[in-house]
Amino acid sequence: MTTMVRAVRYRDGVPVYRYQTAPQVPPVSVLRFDDGHQPGHGRRHIHEFPVLLYVERARQPVAGDSSESIQDGDAYVVAADEVINPGIVTTIASGRGLFFDPTALGGDIQAPWSSWRAHPLLLPFLHAVPGGLLRLHVPPARRPIWSATIAAIETELSDRDEGYRQAVLAYLTVLLVDVARLATDVVGDLRRSNETLLAEVFDTIEKRFAEPLSPREVAKSVGMTPGHLTTLVRRRTGGTLGDWITERRMAQARRLLTETDLPVNEIARRVGLPDPGYFARVFRRGNGTTPRAWRLNTQAQPPTLRTTRADFVP
After folding, report:
1. Contacts of range 220-227, beta carbons closer than 8 Å, 24 or more positions apart
2. Confidence at residue 158, expressed as pLDDT on a 0 to 100 scale
3. Predicted confidence (pLDDT) per residue in 36-85, tens digit
4. 64 and 6 in contact (C-beta within 8 Å)?
5. How far apart are the C-alpha atoms of 80 and 10, rounded to whole Å?
6. Average model confidence (pLDDT) across the chain
7. What are the residue boundaries of the structural domains of the chain, listed by start?
8. Is 193 helix (H, G, I), strand (E, B) or coil?
9. Residue range 153-188, pLDDT digits in tens
10. How far is CA 16 from the centre of its chain?
11. What's the pTM value of the predicted model, to 2 decimals?
12. At CA 145, angle to CA 25 and CA 165, rounded to 5?
């Protein structure tokens, strides 16, 4: 895997991948698909972040091939938290895959976590289509714009000139507006479903993660029993209430380790885990390294990190 995406856990034997959040990691990555190279390892997997796959040119079907017949201009909205079957990539002759840190769109470094799920442009990525792929079709008149916009993102990521992060997010937003318009029915269904309740849950965690907070207290704040709410949250997001409380704390810990010189003990206290030993164990379990090693690594990283096509997980 790349330094931008890594497996953080397994769910029923399926690896779950996360887009890393760090100053040196670009908020968007683009990978190419073509006849000569189909990136991806072909295994089922789960993303905690959105992925958009655009087909510029579909491969001509082979006689007797029973796979899905994709078309030029197809766009696949790859769902977060759903099990993905990556077989579709083998039918792409030319295309681009965009995967990105969804929290970067919000512009609020205080909440680099699941609050992105309330972003109106990202609702299509919360669909529950079997196989995790929502198929949209970009109108012919819009296809040159999609190709040019993705090419502009690639150029910004390659050149890394001043302001490139803002530029790639602006270009990405153009594509996401189109996706939201093409997926009107899906977005409407989500708005009418339990996303409002989830927003309340995440808001409670956001406001109280720095203090002692249990799943039972979160459930009480939204007027539900802990068992019912835990089941709902797991079904909709793939994680438990405890997972999300911990993730919010670890997101804040990563930010403080990267952007401040606060002692690790003080950071532990500020994220609601005042026992330094317990904080270090939780941090290592979720990030694969100790808090001190994370700090040293982020300070030592070079200013640019490159992604190879072979590393992509569609």
Report:
1. 222/197
2. 93
3. 555 555 678 888 888 999 999 887 654 444 445 788 999 999 888 888 87
4. no
5. 15
6. 79
7. 1-193, 194-301
8. coil
9. 999 999 999 999 999 999 999 999 999 888 876 555
10. 11
11. 0.63
12. 20
Does residue 271 contact residue 252 with C-beta atoms inside 8 Å?
Answer: yes
- Both tokens assigned to 289: 């390294």
- CATH fold label, 1-193: Jelly Rolls (2.60.120)
In angstroms, rounded to a whole number, what is the distance separating the alpha carbons of residues 46 and 218? 26
Give me the DSSP letters along the chain: --SSEEEEEEETTEEEEEE---TTS-SEEEEEEETTB--S----EEESS-EEEEEEEEPPPPTT--S----TTEEEEEPTTSEE-GGGGGGEEEEEEEEE-GGGGTT-TT--SGGGGG-GGGGGGG---TTSEEEEE--GGGHHHHHHHHHHHHHHHHH--TTHHHHHHHHHHHHHHHHHHHTHHHHHHHHHTTHHHHHHHHHHHHHHTTS---HHHHHHHTT--HHHHHHHHHHHHSS-HHHHHHHHHHHHHHHHHHH----HHHHHHHTT---HHHHHHHHHHHHSS-HHHHHHHHHHS-S-----GGG---
Contacts of residue 285, defined as CB under 8 A and 6 or more positions apart, other chains included, come to none
> Rounded CA gap, 97 and 300, in Å?
29
SS3 62: coil
CATH T-level assignment (fold) for domain 194-301: Arc Repressor Mutant, subunit A (1.10.10)
Q: What is the pLDDT of residue 238?
A: 67
pLDDT band at 311 (very low <50, low <70, confident <90, very high): very low
